[in-house]
Amino acid sequence: MASPFHHFRRHQKTLLAVFGVIIMFVFVVGSALQGLTDPNRAAQAAANETVVTWKGGSLSEAELAQMNETHRLLVNFLAAVARETMSKNGMPIAPGFSTNQMGQIQSPGIPVAMNEQTLVETRLLADKARQTGMVVNDEAIYDFLENQLAVGLLTRGDLA
Asked: What is the pLDDT of residues 89-144, one digit of tens each?
C-alpha cells in the first residue's frame, strides 16, 4: 500500500515551481490591488479635499482638524495657567474667564467648544486682522498671560 504522500514526493519539483510562481504572483499583484482598495488611502484623499473656500483662500478637512487640535491644546494650556493662578489664591481677570459655583473653570477666556463654522469664522477674522496690519507678537501674549490670566502671580519662567 502506497503512502498518501507518494504523489507529492513524486511531483515535488513541479509543485514547488507552481507554488513559487503563485506566491510571486500573489505578492506582486496582491499588494498592488491592496494599494488601490486601501481605506486609509481614501481617507487621506478625503482629508486633503477642500471643504471651505472664500475670496481669500480655502481650507481642507485636514487643515480644519489641525485648527481644532491647536485650539484644544490652547484651551488646555490657558486652563492650566488659570488653575495654577487659582492655586496661589489668585483669580484671573481675563475677558471671558469664568468659573462655576464650585470654583471649577468653565471658560479660560476663549470658547471651549469649537465647531467647524466657528473655526472658519476665527480664521477669517485672523486673516482680516492680518490684512489691516494687526500683529500679536510674543510680548503681547506674555503680557496677556502674566497680567490678565496669571494676575502677576506667575512669571515668564512659570509660563514657559
From this structure: 999 998 999 999 998 999 998 888 888 899 999 999 999 999 999 999 999 999 99
What is the four-CA torsion angle of 5, 9, 14, 16, rounded to 10 degrees? 80
| CB of 76 closer than 8 Å to CB of 85 | no
CB 86 within 8 A of CB 151: no
What pLDDT shows up at residue 41? 65
CA dist 75 and 108 (Å) reads 7
The radius of gyration of the chain from alpha carbons, rounded to an integer in Å, stands at 30
Task: Please provide the DSSP assignment of the chain as one string.
Answer: ---TTHHHHHTHHHHHHHHHHHHHHHHHHHHHHHHHH-HHHHHHHHHTSEEEEETTEEEEHHHHHHHHHHHHHHHHHHHHHHHHHHHTT-----TTEEE-TTS-EEEESS-S---HHHHHHHHHHHHHHHHTT----HHHHHHIIIIIISTTSS-HHHH-
- Higher pLDDT, residue 7 or 83: 83
Gap between the Cα atoms of 132 and 126, Å rounded? 10
